[in-house]
Amino acid sequence: xxxxxPFQVNQKIVYPSQGVGVVTAVxxxxxxxxxxxxxxxxxxxxDMTIMVPVGKAEELGIRPIVHKDQALRALELIGEEYxxxxxxWKLRYQMNLDLLKKGSVMDIATxxxxxxxxxxxxxxPILERKLYDSALKLLEDEIAFSLKKPxxxxxxxxxxxxxxx
Length: 165
Description:
It is a single chain. The chain is of the alpha+beta class. The chain folds into 2 domains: 12-64, Thrombin, subunit H (Beta Barrel), CATH 2.40.10; 68-162, CarD-like, C-terminal domain (Methane Monooxygenase Hydroxylase, Chain G, domain 1). Helices cover 45% and strands 21% of the residues. The chain contains 5 helices and 5 strands. It has helices at residues 68-77, 89-102, 105-121, 126-147, 151-162, and strands at residues 12-15, 19-31, 34-43, 48-53, 63-64. It has a 5-stranded antiparallel β-sheet. The longest helix is centred in the C-terminal third of the chain and has 22 residues, at 126-147. It is globular. The relative contact order is 0.14.
């Protein structure tokens, strides 16, 4: 059985492939004549509510918003030196998609940093551009919630660090 602490109603969470959300309720639903508890999660970015089985939340990478220290560390990371990434976009895309699925704030910051700098060398293919946009939005949202600052201020902080390299 999972050791993950259950999420509480009104807790802000991150669903790596979907965005930052808030647990609005925990409800039992009948599935194959069994009562299964589900998190009802409202995602502001897409203005929708999704249902996630409580038992699958950890497997899906759903986690609490990071602490302020981790958010600040992620901001530092995007301004640091980095290893060049493969020039083969398909390989790069798969590597970054795997990082996004893992979903830690540091993984997301790594995606933003590498794809931002890659886009300065050559325009990103459409799929990779969408991945970059998703990662950037997720990073902005999570850090804004964690630091309790407006999203536009966080966006400015991110680009200031990215452009410092």
